[in-house]
Amino acid sequence: MLSDKMKNKFHQPHDAWLSLKHILTLVRLESKSSYQIGFCQMDSSTNDVIRDCPPFFKVYKDGRVERYFVTQPVPAGLDRTAGVQTKDVVISPAVKARIFMPQSTTPGQKLPLLVHYHGGGFSIGSAFDTVTYKVVAPLVKQANIVVVSIDYRLAPEHPLPIAHDDSWVGLQWVASHANGQGPEPWLNDNADPSRIFLAGESAGANIAHFVAVLAGATKLVGLKIRGMLLVHPYFGTREPNDNELDKYVCPTSTEFDNDPIVNPEADPKLKEMACERVIVLVAEEDGFRNRGEAYYETLTKSGWRGKVEFFETKGEGHCFHVVIDNHNTGVLKNKMVDFINKDI
What we know:
- 28% of the residues lie in helices and 21% in strands.
- By secondary structure, it is of the alpha/beta class.
- It folds into two domains: 64 residues, no CATH class; 264 residues, 3-Layer(aba) Sandwich (Rossmann fold).
- Strands 4-5-6-8-7-9-10-11-12 form a nine-stranded mixed beta sheet, with helices on both faces. A three-stranded antiparallel beta sheet has the order 1-2-3, with no helix packed on it.
- The longest helix is centred in the middle third of the chain and has 15 residues.
- The radius of gyration is 19 Å and the shape is globular.
- Belongs to the 'GDXG' lipolytic enzyme family.
């Protein structure tokens, strides 16, 4: 069981990043004197560590980065149990992606395409890991869609805005298939460029928003973005923030929470967002719940001409759906499927 000391730490804002696997890691690390959830600490236990940011990563003097959460990859291929097939592609030397499709497709039928960005505090996670698979595979089967999950480079080795830049490259690559002449046959043959969705959870929701705004501001050609799903989104706010982790993953930003890269309220291009509908999904016990609500309110008042919905799951925490399967998980997934399948 968690000690009272550890339970108290879960009231910190960055408890929102935690999954069950993170919690197990934190229990093992409880005895560390330098420990503080979600905040970078100088580790007094060794001279080799120059920065410790649990539950994400630690940085050594020689430049090595060690992550607390080790990605468990899922091999690409046919998964008859999940009812999906997957394929990995290289978009650029730095950017890769995994394509998910239903196990069975009808020749000549074009399906809606969802571009997905994984979460993980901009510093952990992958398009190829078990967490992304658990999130994406059910959507593919239930909504009968194609998904491209973008694998962007991670901080601190690649500080922000590199993750956002990589994610934009990924969306541009998707757009290159709009005329059916792109480099990937699965998209040429099966994806409908007039029915595009963007989605992400946590930090990935932040990225999905970013590329949607950039698509509108630059008038990206070839894709019609019908909707965007922001699941337990992580955004900056204008409230005071002493979180050193944010500063470490984005060292070029003098005011992280006032940077348009992470805070939509500070972005003058918000009203140009290339998206017809948005759903903001939050969890009642999530430390970032209020940031999702603030995004909803900001978008409503921004002059953006689309429609935005707000959905709250009671009694659950941040990204609960990636670690547990319960009634609320099913309700959340069904809400996402209904949003995708509405009016298309």
